[in-house]
Amino acid sequence: MQEVLIVEDDPMVARCLQAAVDADPDLRVAAVVGSCAAAEAWLAGAPTPLAAALVDLGLPDGDGVSVIRAVRERHPRAEAMVISVFGDEEHIVRSIEAGAGGYLHKDAGPLEVAGAVHALLAGEAPMSPGVARRVLERLARQAVAPARAAEPPSPLTPRERDVLDGIAAGLSYREIAAREGVSIHTVQTHIKGLYGKLAVHSKVEAVFEAERCGWLPR
């Protein structure tokens, strides 16, 4: 059973998210909190390992981005997914930089939410179509930007580069493992190495940073 934390201050939305998670036999709501302070306190004393956190960005006592950072710091193996009314580039990029691995609009239905949680835990990066489009537009702008001064050589090993290419192509851990002829555990080990070398906390952020450094093919 995968434990899911819900961070949402709107009672109606919180109930909908809780119902979506509880309806899935493989997921269980670990807690529902409505503020940054409550989320960070729960994360600091969580009684069981956390699998994922569904985080709203507009919380009454601050920005949900701080909660995403707390998830990554307190529970490094857990994934964080934004569920918010905000779909502008600034909120998307800040969330990804903080470590969010997925991003859904609040109009997502129960089946979409549960499916996105499973996709997130499987190594994918679930996003609402509008969010994914903004991410692609940002990458496209970076791709056509004027050439910068020579970048330092990539510190990634050949296998880490192969795994990074798979992430950029939208492949899951299982698909990357099959393509490379290795185990999922080996893929996760390479991804951990990638995160350390790129100083990032999520798959989407790794692609952003590698693209910025010129380590992905245009």
Polypeptide structure, described:
There is one protein chain. The protein is of the alpha/beta class. It folds into 2 domains: 2-136, Response regulator (Rossmann fold, 3-Layer(aba) Sandwich); 148-212, Winged helix-like DNA-binding domain superfamily/Winged helix DNA-binding domain (Arc Repressor Mutant, subunit A), CATH 1.10.10.10. Helix content is 52%, strand content 14%. The protein has 10 helices and 7 strands. It has helices spanning 11-22, 36-44, 64-74, 89-98, 110-121, 129-144, 158-168, 173-180, 184-198, 203-212, and strands spanning 2-7, 27-33, 52-55, 58-59, 62-63, 79-84, 102-105. The strands form 2 sheets. A 5-stranded parallel beta sheet has the order 2-1-3-6-7, with helices on both faces. Strands 4-5 form a two-stranded antiparallel ribbon. The longest helix is centred in the middle third of the chain and has 16 residues, at 129-144.
Keywords:
218 residues; alpha/beta; Rossmann fold; Arc Repressor Mutant, subunit A; 2 domains; 10 helices; 52% helix; globular
CATH topology of the largest domain: Rossmann fold
Tell me the major beta sheet: 5 strands, parallel
Write the CATH homologous superfamily of the largest domain: Response regulator
Q: Which band does the percent of strand residues land in?
A: 5-15%
Global geometry = globular
Unreliable segments (pLDDT under 50, ≥5 consecutive)? none
Overview in brief:
With 218 residues, this protein is of the alpha/beta class. The chain has ten helices and seven strands. A hairpin with a 2-residue loop joins strand 4 and strand 5 (62-63).
